[in-house]
Design brief:
Elements: H1 2-7, E1 11-21, E2 24-33, E3 37-38, E4 49-54, E5 65-72, E6 77-81, E7 86-88, E8 96-104, E9 109-112, E10 117-119, E11 124-133, E12 138-147, E13 160-169, E14 172-182, H2 184-187, E15 198-204, H3 209-219, E16 225-230, E17 233-239, H4 243-262
Parallel strand pairs: 1-5, 4-6, 5-8, 6-9, 7-10, 8-11, 9-12, 10-12, 11-13
Antiparallel strand pairs: 1-2, 3-4, 12-15, 13-14, 15-17, 16-17
Helix pairs in contact: 3-4
Length: 274
């Protein structure tokens, strides 16, 4: 019983600081508590630091609290992804929470591109991502959330979820994106997901008409996807039952917009090919 209660209360904290030193971006400080970690850095494109974020192997359960603080200093270039989906399991206790705070300095670039989150039926979960940008910072990021496991005929018929993305520029809020549901209330609503089990958002510091038209053309055949530009941010939204298709779609959007955001062609993380 004691072991079970301990497993239901991970208090994990991961701090990552990146700086540009000696011709490439380096992870100069890493501090961890609990089951959050990163693999060693990869450099498939020279000075850009590719980092793989590792969540608890057993997923997120009742009472878990996972906190990530990431800072990217001026001129540093960082790409973050995950080797697999993050799973939020059924809860019979307190809410499991994830708080991700990302800070990007002027002239720095952060690409935050984790694979999907899977919220099992019966979960009680909260996930918040706060992105603090200085003027001149470059950012591309996404969040992909799957409610239930439709491939196993497990619909999200019980549980609760709150998901928030907050973006600030020089301390001022420029985008607050929030989704909350309790069981089927929003999943099946005509003003919610209309029975579709997944939703996703992608955001980039980009206001360029040519890039917008290229992304619109890519999304033209997908009736459940759209793109807009607001307050200097390009925002792509999708609802879908197929997480792998959303990952593929966002990767293709990334290939289009990355040269506009950071002046570099897309070099996909190696882990995506495995």
């Amino acid at each position: 019983m004691n072991a079970l209660m301990q497993r239901q209360g991970w208090q994990a904290h991961l701090e990552l600081d990146y700086q540009y030193r000696a011709d490439k971006t380096r992870l100069v400080r890493s501090k961890r508590e609990g089951p959050l970690a990163v693999q060693r850095a990869f450099y498939p494109e020279g000075d850009v630091c590719h980092t793989y974020l590792l969540h608890p192997p057993g997923g997120v359960v009742a009472g878990d609290s996972l906190n990530i603080d990431l800072q990217v200093a001026a001129e540093a270039r960082v790409l973050i992804t995950t080797p697999g989906a993050t799973k939020f399991y059924r809860s019979i206790g307190p809410t499991g929470t994830v708080l991700q705070r990302l800070k990007v300095a002027k002239g720095a670039s952060l690409e935050w591109m984790p694979l999907e989150n899977i919220f099992f039926p019966g979960t009680k979960s909260e996930i918040t991502t706060e992105i603090e940008l200085e003027q001149g910072a470059m950012f591309i990021g996404w969040e992909i959330n799957c409610l239930g496991r439709p491939s196993n005929a497990e619909r999200f018929e019980s549980g609760s979820l709150s998901s928030q993305m907050k973006i600030y520029l020089n301390g001022d809020p420029i985008l607050f994106d929030r989704f909350a549901t309790s069981a089927q209330s929003t999943v099946n609503s005509a003003v919610g997901l209309r029975g579709v089990s997944g939703y996703a958002s992608m955001v980039a510091t980009l206001d360029n008409e040519e890039a917008l038209e290229a992304v619109q053309q890519l999304l033209a055949e997908n009736a459940l996807a759209g793109v807009t530009v607001v307050d200097g941010l390009m925002v792509v939204r999708v609802i879908s039952d197929q997480a792998h298709q959303v990952v593929s779609l966002f990767a293709n959007v990334w290939k289009i917009i990355r040269p506009y955001v950071s002046g570099r062609d897309a070099v996909p993380p190696r882990i995506w090919a495995t």
